[in-house]
Amino acid sequence: MKPALFSVLCEIKEKTGLSIRSSQEEEPVDPQLMRLDNMLLAEGVAGPEKGGGSAAAAAAAAASGGGVSPDNSIEHSDYRSKLAQIRHIYHSELEKYEQACNEFTTHVMNLLREQSRTRPVAPKEMERMVSIIHRKFSAIQMQLKQSTCEAVMILRSRFLDARRKRRNFSKQATEVLNEYFYSHLSNPYPSEEAKEELAKKCGITVSQVSNWFGNKRIRYKKNIGKFQEEANIYAVKTAVSVTQGGHSRTSSPTPPSSAGSGGSFNLSGSGDMFLGMPGLNGDSYSASQVESLRHSMGPGGYGENLGGGQMYSPREMRANGSWQEAVTPSSVTSPTEGPGSVHSDTSN
DNA sequence: TAGTATGATTGGCA
DNA sequence: TGCCAATCATACTA
């Protein structure tokens, strides 16, 4: 009786087992899991060790402005060590899960084997149980991967966000940029080539040069009184180097492509004395330009002899309507803040 | 430590 | 795509 009953049960099992199996197998690969896997691989957390995220460290170097900062290596090693920590935790947790999964699977298999003595347990059913267990554990694994990804993202945002590790440019770099700016005050829009050259000279990236000029233009316009003094300082510097050597001490990169008589700026006659200032091409100032510099730097203080009382006249400078009259200093010798000027950003 | 300076980011515009 | 303007976040300074 018992063997007959057993065989009937086996038949029923076989049928139901097959129907369950056919309904549950061949599940598609979870795209979310794939994304997580790819990200962990890319970050160097999953997969073979690849220098603790050297790619990300390289990205950090690029983001931090050409890697001129001496702190960079320290920061990157810090980043790498933290990434290695995450990697270590991820792998140890993964190992634990796998171990637990194996243990649980063995336990269930043993139970089923024991049960197979009293009820029919087909090998296919055992396989099904194993796959169920694996699915459950892979769900847990996915959570682990997700939290690991989050940790990596936080780490990245902390270390790679350039804003967080802002460094002031070197004095020399600022001087180079300022010299260019004030010597091209009529058209402070360096061309791509000029930007590249400035970037090279300053040890910063082209986008940093663009940022610098963007900030400078706005801040100059907002508070021309303050910058007038700076402008004069650079005027004297450049003038001295001109009268001494015929070339600027820090030769300016190629002037902007739009600069010059054909540029989009309407230039005043008495204003921007560096108008048409030579670039690296080896051009030199005209005698009258040098002479006018000498006059403007006379004993009475530079700029005193100028009709408008200013060496730089930002007025009439117009770039697409933006670089224009908004900036009009009252005097060079007694710089005052322009109308509506602010000390810093309006936000500050 | 508050105020200021400054490099970077973001959103809108032409 | 480059620029402007506003803003953020950090560095610097008195």
Structure description:
The protein has ten helices and no strands. By secondary structure, it is mainly α. Among the domains are: 137 residues, no CATH class; 71 residues, Arc Repressor Mutant, subunit A (Orthogonal Bundle). α4 runs antiparallel to α5 and α8 crosses α9. The N and C termini lie far apart (92 Å). The protein binds a DNA duplex (14 and 14 nucleotides) through α8. It is found in: Nucleus. This is PBX homeobox 2.
The share of residues in helices is 55-70%
Mean pLDDT: 66
Give the H and E element order.
HHHHHHHHHH
Poorly predicted tracts of residues: 20-25, 56-71, 246-251, 256-321, 325-344
Major sheet, described briefly? Answer: none
The fraction of residues in strands falls at under 5%
Distance between the first and last residues' Cα: 92 Å
Number of alpha- plus pi-helical segments: 10
* Rg over alpha carbons: 36 Å
Beta strands, count: 0
Structural class: mainly alpha
Shape: rod-shaped
Provide the fold topology.
Elements (H helix, E strand, L loop, with lengths): L1 H23 L6 H13 L10 H10 L8 H44 L7 H38 L10 H13 L8 H11 L3 H17 L1 H22 L41 H10 L52
Helix pairs in contact: 2-5, 3-4, 4-5, 6-9, 7-8, 8-9
The chain binds a DNA duplex (14 and 14 nucleotides) through α8.
